[in-house]
Predict the structure.
Amino acid sequence: MAADSKGDAGAPSSAALRLLSAEIGACKRCERLVAWRTQTATQKRAAFADEDYWGCGVPGFGDPGAAVVLVGLAPAAHGANRTGRMFTGDRSGDFLYAALHRCGFANQPTSVHAGDGLELRDAYITAAVRCAPPANKPAPEERDACRPFLERELALLGNARVAIVLGAFAYGVLCTLAHIRPRPRFGHGVVVAMPTADRSGRAGGLGGISHIVCSFHPSQQNTFTGRLTADMTDTVLRDARRLANLPLVD
C-alpha cells in the first residue's frame, strides 16, 4: 500500500484518511442502522460465534494514492460488519479480491480479516453507506446521511481518476455527487464521462475523477447465477486501468 505519498493532484497523507475513518467508525447518525449493526454483532452467525464483530461504521480501505476507487453498496452484516474492512470475509469479497489480484490491484487473491496481509495497489475500496442495513436495503434518508462521508473521502483521494460503481445503488449516489443529469442508464460495462471540470480542474463532486465505470455488484445473486462472471469483472477492471492511465497486467 502506498504510504503518505503525494501525487500529481496533491494526494494527502494517509493520516487524513485515518481521521475520516475514525469519524466513520464512531458515527451513530442513523438509529435503525446502529441498532441493526449492533444486533448482528451480538447475535452472531454460528460460523463466527467465537469472533469479535466490528459492529460499527466501516471506513474505506486501500492505497491513499489510488487512481481507481471502487464503490459498493454497504457492508455485509456478517462480512465487513464483522471484520471492519470493506468486502472482507464474505462471498462477494472472495469474488472481488480474486479479480483485483488478477488485474494487478491486490497483492493476494483473498481477504478474510483486517490483519491478513492484503494490500491494494492503485485502488481504494469504499461504499455508499457505511453500516450494514437490514435486508441490504438502506433507506433514502440513510443513504443521504452517509453521502457526505463519501464526498469527503473522494476529495482526500487526490490521485483518483476512475470510479468503479458496484451496482445501481452506488451508481445513483455518485451521479448525484457529480450532478449528472440526465443520468445514463446503468448497465454492466457502461462508462460515463464526468461533466466539464471547473476552473480548479476537478469535475462535479467527485474530486479529480473523470469517468465512472459501471459493474454489476459481486453479490451471490449475480455471481452464482452467471449474471456476473470473472471475465466480466476483469474486463471492467482493465477498462478502469486504461482510463486511469495505469499499465495493463497480463
About this structure: The longest helix spans residues 140-156. The chain is about 35% helix and 10% strand. The two ends are 21 Å apart (CA to CA).
